[in-house]
Amino acid sequence: MRLSRFFLPILKENPKEAEIVSHRLMLRAGMVKQQSQGIYTWLPLGKRVLDKVNAIIREEQNRSGAIELLMPTLQSAELWQESGRYDAYGKEMLRIKDRQERPMLYGPTNEEMITDVFRSFVKSYKDLPLNLYHIQLKFRDEIRPRFGTMRSREFLMKDAYSFDLNREGAVHAYNRMFAAYLRTFSRMGLRAIPMRADTGPIGGDLSHEFIILADTGESEVFCHKDFLNFDIPGIDTNFDDVAGLKGIFDKWTSRYAATSEMHDAPAFEAIPEGERLSARGIEVGHIFYFGTKYSEAMGAKVQGPDGKEHTVHMGSYGIGPTRLVPAIIEASHDENGIIWPKSVAPFEAIVINMKSGDAACDAACETIYGALLNAGVDVLYDDKDERAGAKFATADLIGAPVQVIAGPRGVASGEVEIKDRKTGERETLTIEAAINRLTSGN
Questions:
Q1: Among 323, 320, 322, which residue's Cα sits nearest to residue 160?
Q2: Any bridge partners for residue 135, and if so which?
Q3: CA-to-CA distance for 436 and 438, rounded, in angstroms?
Q4: pLDDT (tens digit per residue) in 27-56
């Protein structure tokens, strides 16, 4: 992508409405635009990051055995009345009526709808276990939306729903998602710590929040330092291995970890002082096992191997992609801008032409840009006629992991400079060596 043809509305000044780093940087870098309170347009740079986050989520959900579908944003109130949650959910639910005066709602979550889908088609235990997921917009009318897309009213959510014949199967489904979540966040450059959580309006008796540590996190968390060194489940994880997944779950729940709402001060203080960690944290995922809460109310049953009808056991598993993007920024930035992990960067590299219009610089940059494109590297070429300082500021702000800097003096010697955005380290290479370096992993 050539920057001269890309839509990148960068702001030079810090927006006054931005309270936290991620909100400020997302606005400044032209990733989002606020349309109304808690509602945002994702601009091209932000959309590129969001798509890469979603791709990782999909890959890990599919790897775990979950199957994707897509449910609508608008739901019939009848389903929620059937489950008993329509009146209980509160003002966060946006209630509306269609032209026939039928009560509807903009879904804040999808337990009722997925239960209706399940009961319409699944009748036998032979079709279990089953886990269905989608990535869809949700709406919760937050009383005080803030922090940009970290806590907005309209947001994107990956929610998965598991169905099993009994509690034993449902707990295995829970452990599947537990391991999948650890892998998902790790691939985005995040160390997520599972912490026992309140189930809230979703219901159930088993629940964990996945928390990343960040100085600007929205809540205080308490945990054992061992979590920082636990191994992430590998790509070869067998999601059908009941004992293996239980082992992962047992290890990652063997140490103290709690948010402020669930904090047990005496238990935490019993940990040796040098092994305690008190920090700020951001929730990036939440998983629940709630048994038969919805299936009982809505008649979701299957015929078991004994020939009798059994009410299925369910769980739900959420990740907020539009929340994950600012969370990654909160965990990875400096005073100059965003530092993206390669896996979710909007562009893996940016080629900076220090003197656009100079024949040698233009030719060198075109050669590098073309070679990277042909090798499948996601590259942005800054071909705009601007001063060098502005180009460097833009490159640092938008956070591409690698900067390729081509100036008249270096190009005259057949060389360019490579800068690592995270470390700031610079290296001078021949144009050919630079191309080989940047295409070797693609």
A1: 320
A2: 158
A3: 6
A4: 999 999 999 999 999 999 999 999 999 999
